[in-house]
C-alpha cells in the first residue's frame, strides 16, 4: 500500500497483522499514539476440536474479528479505518474483516 493511513479519535485505525501461525488486530488512535484495543489468535489456543473445520485458521480469524468488534462497541467506537498493511485482502484477513462488519463496525 502506498497510501499512509492514520486513525483519529473519531475514527481509529484497525490494524491487522498476519504471521504464518497467528493473526493480530489492534485498534489504534494515531493522533494520541495510543493502542485502544488489542486481540490476537493466541487467546484461542485451546479451541475444541469439534469446532474446528478444515479452514481452522479462518475460523479463528472470525473469532478474533468478533471479539475486537465487541470491544469496540463497549468503548463506543462504531467506525474504523481498516489497515491491512501490505497483505492481500484474502483468506484470514478477509474473514476477520467480514466478521467485524457483521458485528456492526463500519469501515
Automatic annotation (TrEMBL):
Keywords: Chloroplast, Plastid, Ribonucleoprotein, Ribosomal protein, RNA-binding, rRNA-binding. It holds the Pfam family Ribosomal_L18p. Coiled coil: none annotated. One of its GO terms (molecular function) is 5S rRNA binding. GO terms for cellular component: chloroplast; ribonucleoprotein complex; ribosome. InterPro entries: Ribosomal_L18, Ribosomal_uL18_bac-type, Ribosomal_uL18_bac/plant/anim. GO terms for biological process: translation. Its main location: plastid. Binds 5S rRNA, forms part of the central protuberance of the 50S subunit. Part of the 50S ribosomal subunit; contacts the 5S rRNA. PANTHER family: 39S RIBOSOMAL PROTEIN L18, MITOCHONDRIAL (PTHR12899), LARGE RIBOSOMAL SUBUNIT PROTEIN UL18M (PTHR12899:SF3). This is Large ribosomal subunit protein uL18c. It comes from Dermonema virens. The lineage of its organism: Eukaryota, Rhodophyta, Florideophyceae, Nemaliophycidae, Nemaliales.
